[in-house]
Structure formats: structure tokens, C-alpha cells
Amino acid sequence: MADQNGLEALSMRKLAGALNATAMSIYNHVKGKEELHTLMLDHVINEFEHPDIDGEWKTMLKRRAISVYAALKRHKWALTLMLTKSAPTSATLRDTDRVVGCLRNAGFSFKQVDWAHNAIESHIYGYTIQELNFPVEPDEYQSAAQHFLPHISLKEFPHAHASAKAVADGDYHGMTDFEFGLDLLIESIAAWQAKNQQAE
């Protein structure tokens, strides 16, 4: 129901109706909407590909990041809960434990684990938020560029004009790539961690 209509459209009454049950009977299984949200979020987090703590860390964290990104696109409501819930759920702790274990086994200090993990999470969340809220669908980029091109002054904004013209003319599709930024980030973390190990 949340996937179809958003989290705000989900109520205990509507859930009961979908299950052909009474609203009060739902409370025999969950205390309220907050616990329901926790269970829903755990369901999404269990779709993540959790790292093998003995696996090669770059491969493990890339595969996990791609799976998180895919899950958050399937369940567009989940990111809001992930960013606002202060108490970690059992699924969150399980996922975090595997990430920490994988990086620690690769020689990362606790500080390096924390910084690397946060950097990758920020890429996933930031990219997903932008993509889910972008006002133009990917298959509309070219027509949107053609529409806005006359409003981008060639004289005042020559580089922005040229970039929009490339999309409008079909020279470039205008779509960004989640894995491009992810690969840059992971390789930068690897170089940073190696440099800090040498310094120590």
C-alpha cells in the first residue's frame, strides 16, 4: 500500500480494510503505526545485499550500495523512515554489523570505518533523493532541454547553453549514473585508507 500510494496514505484503518479485518484486530499484532513502520522498514533493509565480512571490501560495499539504491527506488517511502528513525532496528543493526566487520577485516580503523560508511551512505541517499524528486523523467530530458534552451541566454550563460544544447540535439542523453559516482568514491576511500595506514 505504501509503495503504491505513499507512507502518508497508509493508516491502520486502511490496512485493516485491505486485510478484510477490523482496525482493532490489527493492534493484536502491532502496538501502533510506529511499530508498523519499523516492521516495514526492516522488510526493506532485509532486501539489501549485506556484505560478506570476509569478502573483498570494495566489491562487497559496491554490491551492497547498488542493492540499497535499488530497494529505495522500489520503496520510495523507506528513505524518509531511514533518515528520521533514531532507534536502530534489528535489521539496521545486522546490516551495520556486516559493513563494519567487512571494513575492519580489511584493515580499516574504527574512525575510517565510520567515515567510509557515512560517505557511501551519503552518496546513496543523496543520489536517490535527487532522482526520486527530479521534476523530469529520463525519457523527457531531450524534449525538456529543447523547451528550456531558448530561455538560457547564449551570451550570459554560454557553457550552460552549450550543455543544454548537447542534450537537446541528442549528442548526450543527460542521464547521470549512480555507479559512476559510487566507483569514484570507493576508489578514493581505498586511496585515502592506504595513505593513512602508511602514515601510521
Quick one: overall form? Answer: flat
* CA radius of gyration: 22 Å
CATH topology of the largest domain: Tetracycline Repressor, domain 2
The total count of strands amounts to 0
Beta-strand percent range: under 5%
Uncertain residue segments: none
**Could you give a short account of the major beta sheet?**
none
What CATH first level of the largest domain would be assigned?
Mainly Alpha
| Distance N to C terminus | 52 Å
CATH superfamily of the largest domain: Tetracycline Repressor, domain 2
User: Helix tally?
Assistant: 11
Average of the residue pLDDT scores: 92
Total domains: 2
Element order: H for helix, E for strand: HHHHHHHHHHH
CATH architecture of the largest domain, please? Orthogonal Bundle
SS-derived structural category? mainly alpha
How much helix is in the residues? Answer: 55-70%
In short:
By secondary structure, the protein is mainly alpha-helical.
